[in-house]
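Worked Example 4.2. Consider the chain below.
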Amino acid sequence: MLKNSWISGRKKIIYSFKNKMLSLIIFFLFVFLLPVFSYSQEILSRAVVVMDASTGRLLYAKNPDLRCPPASTTKLMTAIITLERANLNDVVTISKNAARVPPHKAGFRAGDRMTVEELLNAALIGSANDAAVALAEAVAGSEEKFVELMNMKAISIGASNTFFINATGLPGSGQYITANDLSRIMSYALKYPKIREIIGTRITQVSATNGSSKLIRNTNRLLWSEDDLVGGKTGYTNKARHCFVCAAERKNDTIVVAVLGSPSREELWRETELLITKGFDVLNNRENPVFYVTNTEIDDYSIVKPSKRIHKIKKSSKKISFAKKSKIKSSKEKIYAKGKIKKYKIAKSKTKNKKSFKFAKRTGVEKS
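Applying the procedure from the previous section yields the following structure tokens:
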């Protein structure tokens, strides 16, 4: 009888202990994971990176290596190449080719003569395509040769997952950038005082040598509302959706925010303001960094910690960039996510333990 009573009491203690441990685990999951899912659900853009400009440390990332159309954020690289190879006071004659480039443009006419500085203002403040093409032709003789310089520069500064086909960002086959690379390009661009000056200008007037002038307003709305903003570059095409890259400073800290594929301009500004706050909170140790990848077709979330092993896959569908792995059945893997199945071929890895395969990351467009 005493023995049964002792056993019964022991079971109650164990049961009580398990309940307390379960409650504790739930509490910690709520405290630490809720902010992660809160931010992940609030960011609707396809790809996002928040980076410490001085160290390159990622403070927040969503699909950082997802290839997206760059739209007019391309003009940052156009400005970098121009400043490396031309003088601000050089005079450029607008060609017929530059004058007839599709909008958005400043409306320069063939034969107009502008300084390099005026054209940079038009390209970076007003996102003028005619100005960007005129700069490319003046620097390299043709836009095609200028683009070669852009791509070489991208590789040299670590933006190796980027490929440009024009100086404007207008739609074109094979042109892409990642949020990670875009943030690197902006960090590099900040080294040029002239670029910092131009992207931080709200309104300016550009004048041709014949006396005609145009008033240009910055396409970056946050210059009127965000005190910490250094400046930025917007972009939009039907395929790219709304894009933006900017830099913000507080005291001695500078962060870069790159946003690609936002569903609307209002959403773009809302997310950027949220991400600026997030970035400085991480820098000041008020929050932890967050990294995650999504399957945009399935709307599934995979939280990625830097300490976890990342395994590469070769994707078989051009529509899906990332997938969350849950089961391994054979060498020809199937990725399961919310009832939809896509086939993937697993790339070779040194890891033999299948349980360590927790996340999948896109590495190319090679079909299996």
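The chain has two domains: 47-288, 300-368. The first strand starts at residue 47 and ends at 52. Compare this with Example 4.1 before moving on.
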